[in-house]
Predict the structure.
Amino acid sequence: MPSATLDKALELRSGRERPGQFWKIDLDAIDFSSLQAAAPSDPQIVAPSKPGLIACGLETARRDHAEIFNGAFGSVTGTLNDKFAALSAALCNSGAFVYIPPDQSVDDPIEITYTAKNGALFPHTLVVVDRGARCTVIERIEGESADAVCGIAEIVAAESASVTYAAEQNLPLESQAFFTRAASPGKDASVTWCVAEVGAALSVSRIDVLVDNPGVDAHVNGFFFPRGDQHVDMVSTIRHNVGESQSQTLIKSAATGRGQARYLGNIRIAPHAQGTEASLRDDALLLSPRAHIDSVPALEIGANDVKAFHGATIGALDENLIFYMESRGIEREAAEKMIALGFFEPVVERFPTAAMRDRLRAALEAKIA
Amino acid sequence: MSERGLRIQQLRASAGGTQILKGIDLEVEAGRVHALMGPNGSGKSTLAFSLTGHPGFKVESGSVTLDGADVLAMAPDKRAKAGLFLSFQYPAAIPGVKVANFLFAARQALHPGDLPPAKFRALLLEKMDLLDMDPSFMGRYLNDGFSGGEKKRLEMLQLAMLAPKYAVLDETDSGLDVDALRAVGESVNAMRASETGKDTGFLIITHYPRILQYVKPDVVHIMIDGRIVKEGDAELAQRIEREGYDKIREETAQIA
């Protein structure tokens, strides 16, 4: 284990202040040095058969695909100076490498499933999509034990490439999840993140898109729904360092029981990034008096010729909507459930594959019940 | 059979601490069309919401019975199950809930198990056709981004699909163009001509008499300042058309 790298990671601050008075966990007080890491393992990978498509574990990637893999691995998340990304990199014990060759269009998703058991998991998924290629990756994070998972998902998309990466974290309720997801799209490339933070007692995640090329189309879609004593802290950041690009961020969150959450939605438009179009929408729904969500859209606009929009709502279920449904004979409880599920639907329907959407709907329904 | 009808007796109701209904007596008979007319602010919508149990309105006294059953003792969904329907003046938009799913849930709640999904869908398409609604409506989110006319058509679609015993249409005609108004009128008439709708009693709440050109009322009730001040036949609605409400207000003020 490269202990100097680990020591440095342990010393880094999370950079996240405690979101609110009800928030019980100090992220900088979590003792990562005592985590017992699991033995190295590969995730389960299911990929369609396509000429030139690579989908394999890290060891195979290093051995057989070094010329593509080595330059890209850590090239995006390594620049973030993030505590959790640094920890994951230092202790990496699982991972997957996906490569799509130029102009290859892959319709069926590549599915990668990480299962935590017998120790903490530090997975790193790297997706490299070459010029003009297109693919969808579905990542599932599950656990047979309550071990912590601290992972990285990294996208390197070349010019005119298009990639959708959907991550579904559904760890056991005693677990802790820390995820860093970052993408670097090339000129005219399209990158879509879909992130569902469903499980774990504590879920800390960041989603980044580094827009360093013109013509980029970036999408961040995400939802979370803490219930019981679950805590969720999600930050998304789109850095428009270069103009003539666009981004859309859509986050839906709800909290019930004593669920606690914070979402920070950053849009940064650099002074010379003229012609940027960015929108951010986040809606938060409070389903119990002790649930709490801090929802903060933060737009930093340095250029003057841009279109930037943000909208945020937070509130309880609207009594008028409940009454409308009741007036049609639907019982109050069922009405509340339909409205709450409907609240998530605009983001759920952006996830790839009907199977995944149905799984997410079922997970949401179970949370409301 | 003597108990049949939606009977409102001495109903007093308030909103935000202000009494708005000051003792309403009104009976909607099964199979008949009643029009409730009155100027803005007379309490027509308050009556509609009080009948259906909106939490923002407080019934202070009086009684409402539906074919003998005590409506005021019921939760809003039970009132619907008893056969009461309200077409909202401002229907709620519910993002993420698709029209077809909502209607199926409502139909199931009111008439459990009577229509398997395939037959439900066929009936839905038939009723939508009658209202000049494109089948794509089924997949849209409930009233989300709907125009005023689309919202009212959807209310009429619900009326047709839910087949209530008594239907209160609150200003269904407001904000509609002539085509939409005709579609609404034809929908009500088609329902009245059908086997399931022939016994439905209607209370059509309106400010303007124009919807009554399409649906002919059997009885017209005039409401001013929270009271029913006058009742008559369809001729009364035509008088309102000619004279407005001021004259009736003057006449009835002297009586009061």
